[in-house]
Design a protein that fits this description.
about 260 residues; alpha+beta; 4-stranded antiparallel β-sheet; 4-stranded mixed β-sheet; 5 helices; about 15% helix
């Protein structure tokens, strides 16, 4: 148990060989747990069928990255390897598969920092994107009802990723949770929420096991509907694509 995970406060990931300007991009934000309404009601305007049925989920406190994982962080952990199509230290890393993140990057990051980071569960991701304890604000996107204020998408991205943190954050101070790059989650994909966990844990063990994993956020090529906090999609865990990146999470190990 790492002491940073026992305190209900934000922290900067320690032990990384990053210049000072990059340190601000490796912050972890403490997210206090709560019960929230996940998904979209059936027939809601703009919603897709795989967002239903909407349901209550009780999420335990956890930590999540203030920014998507940047190329600078990836290179610091993976010894200067940079698979990204759009190069730039402060841009999100992309062209990284779920398999490589979980089998290579996360173990290497633990070796460097002593902290057991992981991918967020789908419920954690949506709860954080909705603002955590501010989820009742009911915003369409992560921090606003106007996507241009908080995200990069087909109308403003010039069809490329952008450096992390240039748009307005959401209520938790999280950046780029609507648009820029899609973000891998821990969960296996299921095409609706029937039987989904109600405790915020990852959805596992469906008949599609090993075939698809969940991705969230929408990306720089997507339309506004796709970048809503409730929207979800799927991707093969071995897929490498210039739209797919990720964000770190870690379990809170103190008392709530």
């Amino acid at each position: 148990m790492h002491p940073l995970l026992t305190r209900p406060e934000n922290f900067t990931i320690p032990g990384l060989p990053l210049p000072g300007a990059q340190q601000q991009l490796v912050d972890m934000v403490y997210v206090p747990g709560d019960t929230f309404r996940m998904g979209s009601p059936e027939g809601a305007p703009g919603a897709y069928g795989d967002e239903s049925p909407d349901h209550d989920v009780t999420v335990s406190s956890f930590f999540i990255g203030r920014f998507p994982v940047t190329q600078a962080l990836w290179k610091a952990v993976m010894k200067d390897d940079n698979p990204s199509f759009f190069k730039g230290d402060e841009r999100p890393v992309e062209q990284v598969s779920w398999d490589r993140i979980t089998n290579e990057f996360l173990p290497a990051l633990k070796d460097m920092t002593g902290i057991a980071f992981r991918l967020p569960t789908e419920a954690e991701w949506e709860y954080a994107a909705r603002g955590g304890p501010y989820h009742k604000d009911g915003l369409l996107y992560a921090g606003s009802n106007k996507l241009k204020e908080v995200g990069w998408f087909e109308d403003n991205s010039h069809l490329e990723t952008k450096p992390a943190g240039l748009k307005r954050p959401n209520q938790l101070g999280l950046y780029d949770m609507s648009g820029n790059v899609w973000e891998w989650c821990q969960d296996q994909w299921h095409d609706n929420y029937n039987g989904a966990p109600k405790d915020g844990s990852a959805s596992e063990g469906w008949f599609e096991e090993g075939v698809y994993r969940v991705i969230r956020s929408g990306g720089y090529l997507d339309e506004v509907q796709t970048c809503r906090t409730a929207n979800r999609y799927l991707s093969r865990p071995a897929l490498v694509h210039r739209l797919n990146g990720f964000r770190l999470a870690a379990s809170f190990q103190g008392g709530d």
